[in-house]
């Protein structure tokens, strides 16, 4: 008789009940791909390790608040938010390089530049001008890199609504950037 391992939802319910082995199993199942994706966004291995650890600490503390979407998507959103927190902390500490431990002469990746703009630049200001529903779709699909299906599960809306909101959000974001003036237009 073969014993099927519990699914992500069952593991998360067990985590919500305080089962540390379920958290370890969830970690074993998801930490590898989370680490790989975080490494693409941040080249500092220590920061990636800390963000990964913070992600699972947050999952431990908030498992009972999971809204029922894909557990992997939920963990990714937590990880991206923890990475954004780390970047904000580094920026406050005066690090414009967003925690990137680079060899001398190397430049930030295009993705790091975009993420910095989302948090601190004209794009961030423009994002603040669009509705929260549209902003949530953009953050999930563009910043967090979730698929339409994952975004739909995360936000609890149909996939068609995700696509419609994403299209509308891009139009409104362009308009908001234009409204910010010449500097806003140059950021695109």
TrEMBL record:
GO molecular function: DNA binding; sigma factor activity
Domain RNA polymerase sigma-70 region: 26-92
GO process terms (BP): DNA-templated transcription initiation
Origin superkingdom: Bacteria
SUPFAM superfamilies with a match to the protein in the record: Sigma2 domain of RNA polymerase sigma factors, Sigma3 and sigma4 domains of RNA polymerase sigma factors
Transmembrane segments: none
The entry's keywords: Sigma factor, Transcription, Transcription regulation
A Pfam family assignment: Sigma70_r2
Positions of the RNA polymerase sigma factor 70 region 4 type domain: 123-173
Alphabetical list of InterPro entries matching this protein: RNA_pol_sigma-70-like, RNA_pol_sigma-70_dom, RNA_pol_sigma70_r2, RNA_pol_sigma70_r4_t2, RNA_pol_sigma_r2, RNA_pol_sigma_r3/r4-like, WH-like_DNA-bd_sf
Similarity comment text for this entry: Belongs to the sigma-70 factor family. ECF subfamily.
Protein name as it appears in the record: RNA polymerase sigma-70 factor, ECF subfamily
Organism the protein comes from: Actinacidiphila glaucinigra
Lineage: Bacteria, Bacillati, Actinomycetota, Actinomycetes, Kitasatosporales
């Amino acid at each position: 008789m073969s014993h099927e391992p519990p699914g992500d939802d069952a593991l998360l319910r067990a985590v919500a009940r305080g089962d540390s082995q379920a958290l370890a199993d969830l970690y074993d199942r998801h930490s590898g791909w989370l680490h790989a994706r975080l490494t693409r966004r941040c080249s500092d291995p220590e920061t990636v390790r800390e963000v990964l650890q913070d992600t699972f600490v947050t999952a431990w503390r908030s498992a009972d608040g999971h809204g029922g979407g894909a557990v992997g998507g939920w963990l990714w959103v937590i990880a991206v938010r923890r990475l954004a927190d780390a970047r904000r902390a580094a920026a406050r500490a005066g690090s414009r390089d967003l925690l990137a431990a680079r060899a001398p002469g190397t430049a930030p990746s295009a993705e790091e530049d975009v993420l910095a703009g989302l948090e601190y630049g004209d794009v961030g200001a423009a994002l603040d001008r669009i509705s929260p529903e549209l902003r949530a779709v953009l953050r999930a699909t563009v910043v967090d890199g979730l698929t339409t299906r994952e975004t739909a599960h995360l936000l609890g809306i149909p996939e068609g609504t995700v696509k419609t909101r994403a299209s509308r959000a891009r139009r409104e974001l362009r308009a908001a950037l234009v409204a910010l003036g010449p500097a806003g237009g140059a950021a695109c």
